[in-house]
Amino acid sequence: MDLDFWILKKLDEKKLLEDLKSYLNQFYYLKDAAFKFYTLLLELKSKEYPRSLKIEIRKEQRKIKTELAIVYSKYSNKQILLRVVSLENMMKFKVDAFLERKEIRDVFDIEFLFKRGVELDIEQNKLIKLLKLINSLTKKDYSVKLVLC
User: Fold this and answer.
1) pTM, whole model, 2 decimals?
2) CB-CB neighbours of 3 under 10 Å
3) How many other CB atoms are there within 10 angstroms of residue 96's CB atom?
4) For 71, phi and psi rounded to 5 degrees?
5) What CATH architecture does domain 1-60 belong to?
6) Which of the two residues, 115 and 143, has the higher pLDDT score?
7) Average per-residue pLDDT for the chain
8) In percent, how much of the chain has pLDDT > 70?
9) With contact defined as beta carbons under 8 Å apart, do 93 and 109 qualify?
C-alpha cells in the first residue's frame, strides 16, 4: 500500500521529513525514511495491520487539480475527508511516470483508471509513444519482482 503526495508550496523539505519521522515514530515502526533526489520517502508498519505503508512525497511543485474524497480502509472503522489529486490529473501523472520510468506498475494504474471511465486526454504524439512502449513490454515485464529483505 502506498500514498503519494506533492508539495504545493515552498517549504523546508528536510525539516518536513524530520517532523514526519518524529510524529510517525510515536505510533508506528519506521522501516525507512529517506531524503531522495525527487522525493521524501517514508515506510512504516503497524502492529495492527499486516502490510507496510509507503508514503512518497514528491518535491516537484506542480499545479494540481484536486477534489475532496472520503478515504477509508476495510481494516478500520475510521473515515477521513481528504483533498486528493483529481482522477484526470492522476491519469496524466501515471502516463508521464510510465513514459519516464517504463515500469509496468504504471500501466496497471492507467488501466485501472481507464476502466473506471477516466479519459486518456493526452496529445497524439504522447499517445503513440505510450502505445509503442506498452506494446514493447515482454513476458518478463509481467513477472512478479521479488525483493529479498
Assistant:
1) 0.71
2) 13
3) 14
4) -110, 135
5) 2-Layer Sandwich (3.30)
6) 115
7) 88
8) 95
9) no
